[in-house]
Amino acid sequence: MAQVKSDLRQLKELLDQATKRSYADYARGDFQVEKEQVELGQKLEKEILESFLTKVQNNSGYIHGTVSEEKLKWAREQLFGGKVAGVDGRRDKPLDIVSGVFCEIGIARVTYQTLSDPNLSCFPITSHLKEATTVDKYYSNLEDNRLKEDTITTAMIYWELEACLNSPTAWVLKDGPIIHPSLVWKGYDFLIDLLRKVVNHKRIIGIVKDLRGEVSIPLRRFGKLLKPGEYLVVYKGVKDWITDDKLQDAAKRLRLDEGSKVYRGVFKARVKAYGFEIHEESFEEGMAILMADAMNNKRGMPNLVDQADTIAGIAFPSGLFSEKIKREFLLRGMGEYWDLIDEHDLRG
Fold first, then answer.
1. Which of 226, 294, 319, 340 is the most exposed place for a label (fewest CB within 10 A)?
2. 3-class state of residue 8 by DSSP
3. 3-class DSSP state for residue 118?
4. Which long-range contacts (CB under 8 A, 24 or more apart) does 60-66 make?
5. Contact 236, 202 (CB under 8 A)
6. String of b and e for 69-102 (b: at least 16 CB within 10 Å)?
């Protein structure tokens, strides 16, 4: 109810306070209101920066710090010794046809010693689904939910986490959170068991690149205030960023047990800030590895994750799998081919 009231209030304020301009004003580019807002933001940011250290030091829940040169040296030895892997996954937009859904998920795992020979795994979903093998089954399934993109994304996250657990390296840097909210919300026993194993590994580190979500707003705002080389732990335990509303019992237990041992915060190695999730018992070493690897990247992204993302993109390029499927249908007749083409692709 509180969330509904908040949304209602914000929507009313937006509608009531919105500035209206004619298209002629828009075309002229005289964005005076926006310019004033930018100037206000710059002034406010300066004042916030001056009070930032006092703010975090007065809050016992935060941990603010830097990584010593000695720790960074140790971390570089782990990184370039091949003891740390980066993991990332890619998937195409699924194609929905009569007999089921076609999709492909690719996972890349790489270390600094395997850049020329990374570990690649491919999971084609085509053979896993036979939703309409007969005419009667096709018509009976017309009103049923087909395989959703959300379910496919969950499968990709599951396989990414499996790749982390199966890595022979001592440490793993994973693209995305290690306690993924969508897996917690689904609450299925096998998903919760997987998350428990990931947390208990203690050396799987999550890198949260996208800080646009509502629960990441504090990370994004604090991240802007960090200087290069600084980090800030904002949350100690999953309960601080995943509420127990409507969670399954197994997910509630995870949230209070293993989940209580995960730190979540933000760090800045160079110019851009990123979120992290690290087990409390391996925090100092994990943060050193995170910071040292991010210093190898011009943006400040942990470089092994960036490399895994690039390798996955090359090995499983966007659109290639769907183009293969479309080509097969094109060989069988234009009627089926047109059904597979997205409406946006037909506009020219």
1. 319
2. helix
3. coil
4. 61/234, 61/236, 62/232, 62/233, 62/234, 63/232, 63/233, 63/263, 63/265, 64/230, 64/231, 64/232, 64/233, 65/230, 65/231, 66/229, 66/230, 66/231
5. no
6. eebbebbbebbeeebbbbbbbbbbebbeeeebbb
The half-sphere exposure of 20 on its side-chain side, counting CA atoms within 13 A, is 2
Could you tell me the domains of the chain? Answer: 60-317 (3.30.2170)
342: tokens are 């997205």
Q: Which tokens go with 143?
A: 């009103």
Sequential pLDDT tens for the chain (348 residues): 666 777 888 888 888 887 777 777 777 777 777 788 888 888 887 777 777 777 777 777 899 999 999 999 999 999 999 999 999 998 877 766 666 677 788 999 999 999 999 999 988 776 445 555 666 766 666 666 667 788 888 999 999 999 999 999 999 999 999 999 899 999 999 999 999 999 999 999 999 988 877 677 888 888 888 999 999 999 999 888 888 888 899 999 999 999 999 999 999 999 999 999 999 999 999 999 999 999 999 999 999 999 999 999 898 877 666 666 666 666 666 555 555 556 555 555
Nearest in space to 122 (alpha carbons), one of 140, 137, 109: 109
Structure tokens at 45: 């940011």
